[in-house]
Specification:
This protein is of the alpha+beta class and about 260 residues long. About 50% of the residues lie in helices and about 15% in strands.
Length: about 260
């Protein structure tokens, strides 16, 4: 009985194992950061994407020795790698969520796509490139987030308040009075009339780094007889609407307005 050749073409067995191990470890390292933030694609997803990409790169480079032995055949290993880059987009699309004019999951989808590149590099034996790319990915994810929040904040300090107000009265007077007496800044206001229901909906987008100022503004609104219900969404720890329900608080580094 002939022995089983564990090598992959010209690639020795332990070299293959080393490449797959490096790809899995680097992908898992990036996934740890996503797992810590409780994203849809975490440790296992990133590790598997990197591992699968490395496997495809190894197969593309070393997997067809019998086809070229003694034959003038030109083999392009980059063709299969190119299909990985485009095909991984379907997995990235699965972690992107669109809800109520808000897109979430873009950063996680980008890391899944980038991890595929790390796996391809490790599978191709470019270990330095794979390691440096992983380091830059971690730097972008963890190191640039405070900078983004400080100078280009889209959601930091942004709060959304939705009001159900009595139809047919001067609803905005009490709202503007509460704003004038508070430290919050009005970014946008949307007014939706619903005459048949007896109430209208006012959607406010407020800017403030002080959670206490937002709560003070909501407290002022609760004294208004024209406001029937208050729903609050923000990026802080907790809060309650007028009926005592827990607020859904938004804090997602994958959010794009």
């Amino acid at each position: 009985m002939p022995g089983i050749d564990l090598n992959v073409g010209a690639l020795p067995f332990w070299d293959m194992v080393f490449r797959l191990t490096i790809a899995t470890m680097l992908g898992g390292l990036v996934g740890l950061e996503r797992e810590r933030r409780e994203r849809a694609a975490g440790l296992r997803t990133h590790a598997l994407v990197s591992l699968a990409s490395a496997v495809m790169m190894v197969v593309s480079t070393y997997g067809f020795p019998s086809m070229i032995d003694g034959v003038q055949v030109g083999l392009d290993p980059s063709r299969l790698a190119a299909q990985v880059v485009s095909g991984i987009g379907f997995l990235g699309a699965g972690v992107i969520i669109f809800r109520e004019k808000t897109v979430r999951g873009l950063t996680t989808a980008a890391t899944v796509w980038a991890v595929a590149g790390v796996g391809l590099a490790a599978g191709g034996g470019l270990f330095t490139l794979a390691a440096v790319a992983t380091g830059f990915m971690l730097l972008v994810q963890a190191g640039l987030k405070p900078v983004e929040q400080r100078f280009f904040a889209r959601s930091a300090g942004q709060h959304r308040v939705v009001l159900d107000v009595v139809h047919g009265v001067d609803q905005l007077d009490d709202i503007m009075r509460a704003l004038a007496n508070s430290a919050v800044r009005l970014r946008s206001l949307r007014f939706d009339q619903s005459p048949g229901s007896g109430s209208d909906v006012v959607k406010l987008t407020l800017m403030s780094e002080d959670q206490g100022a937002i709560l003070e503004f909501i407290t002022r609104l609760r004294t208004s007889e024209t406001v029937r219900r208050i729903s609050y969404q923000g990026n802080s720890s907790s809060g309650q609407d007028r009926e005592g329900r827990n607020d859904q608080l938004v804090d997602d580094d994958d959010t794009e307005p």
